[in-house]
From TrEMBL:
This is ATP-binding cassette domain-containing protein. It comes from Streptomonospora wellingtoniae. The keyword ATP-binding applies. It is a peripheral membrane protein. InterPro entries: AAA+_ATPase (IPR003593), ABC_transporter-like_ATP-bd (IPR003439), ABC_transporter_ATP-binding (IPR050763), P-loop_NTPase (IPR027417). The lineage of its organism: Bacteria, Bacillati, Actinomycetota, Actinomycetes, Streptosporangiales.
């Protein structure tokens, strides 16, 4: 079967002007420095890296917004920048920080307009819209202007708009950014279902390890424009073991907590940070049994830390 994405030595440099107006100098900035990877149809791949690593630039090349300065790129056999219109029928794109919906129109009207954008036959559009309305639970706010939607509702609307033409590849840039726990979970469940039922290939960038753990069987880590890791989640954990942290607020400051399955990494007044190695539920039970606790929260490690550790290990 043909690959959904083929990238070979893919690179992008920008030329930026610098200095005072009359003595402007041009400087070349490398954003992506020659990355190679293939994505097979039906994969869900996380594309991770710290801020400025080159993720958005790669996404823009994949969707044809930017032309590569080096290498070869094919998306479903098409050259994105040169064949943007043909590509648009095969891919859906959602940028979490922006919306493609019309701000002043009810969601329903925005979704109706996308039919014309992608020239979807009326009957197909009606059927897809009914399906997406059901699985994304859109019916209660279809009549609401987009500007009045909550972030989670808007994201569900954006996903519907990106999927109405039934693309084979879905490209997502930070799909759960800013969402509450319930909305995040709904979006993740939806994406898993889309992948399982329709075989849609999904490539996503995220700073949220929860997205990665729930969704991605494969992760690619990019840093300073280069691929630092390409493998499964177990491999990522092996390359960068990441203990989660339990933040415990005691009612009163005390000695460092000692329990099985955790190591106290820091103490600041009544607050203590415990690096978890064992089962979180057991550790929480033991801490609350032995201490008077005001509050407890579980902190996930962040992606920047994953990348830092991969480099330290390499
Ligand atoms: N249009 C542009 N002109 C000049 N430099 C750019 C341009 N777009 C991106 N860059 C530079 O390219 C590098 C990679 O940027 P990119 O936006 O791809 O990173 P990112 O991994 O998406 O970061 P973030 O997680 O913050 O979105 C950065 O150094 C950035 O400043």
């Amino acid at each position: 079967m043909n690959a959904a994405i083929e990238a070979e030595g893919l690179g992008k440099t920008f030329t930026v002007a610098e200095g005072p107006l009359l003595r402007r100098r041009r400087r070349r900035v490398g954003a992506v420095g020659g990355v190679s990877f293939d994505v097979a149809p039906g994969e869900i791949v996380g594309y991770l890296g710290p801020n400025g690593a080159g993720k958005s630039t790669t996404m823009k090349m994949l969707t044809g917004i930017l032309a590569p300065s080096a290498g070869r790129l094919r998306v479903h056999g098409l050259e994105p920048a040169a064949q943007r219109t043909a590509l648009a029928r095969r891919i859906g794109v959602v940028f979490g920080q922006r919306t493609t919906l019309w701000w002043d129109l009810p969601l329903r009207d925005s979704l109706a307009l996308t039919r014309h954008l992608y020239r979807v036959p009326r009957a197909d559009h009606r059927r897809r819209l009914a399906e997406l309305t059901e699985v994304l639970e859109l019916s209660e706010f279809l009549a609401t202007p987009v500007r009045q939607l909550s972030l989670g509702q808007r994201m569900r609307g954006d996903l519907a708009a990106a999927l109405l033409h039934d693309p084979r590849l879905l490209v997502l840039d930070e799909p759960t950014i800013g969402l509450d726990v319930v909305s995040k979970s709904a979006i993740r469940d939806f994406l898993l279902r889309l992948n399982a039922e329709r075989g849609t290939t999904i490539l996503l960038t995220t700073h949220d390890l929860g997205d990665v753990e729930r969704l991605c069987r494969r992760v690619m880590v990019i840093d300073s424009g280069r691929l630092a890791f390409d493998g499964d989640l177990a491999g990522l954990h092996a390359a960068a073991p990441l203990p989660r942290t339990l933040v415990v607020d005691l009612e009163r400051a005390g000695a460092p907590i000692e329990v099985d399955g955790a190591r106290t990494a820091a103490v600041e007044g009544p607050r203590q940070w415990l690096e978890l190695h064992g089962n979180p539920a057991n550790v929480v039970a033991e801490v609350t049994a032995r201490h008077r606790v005001a509050d407890i929260t579980l902190q996930e490690p962040d992606i920047e830390e994953v990348v830092r550790r991969i480099y330290a290990g390499a």
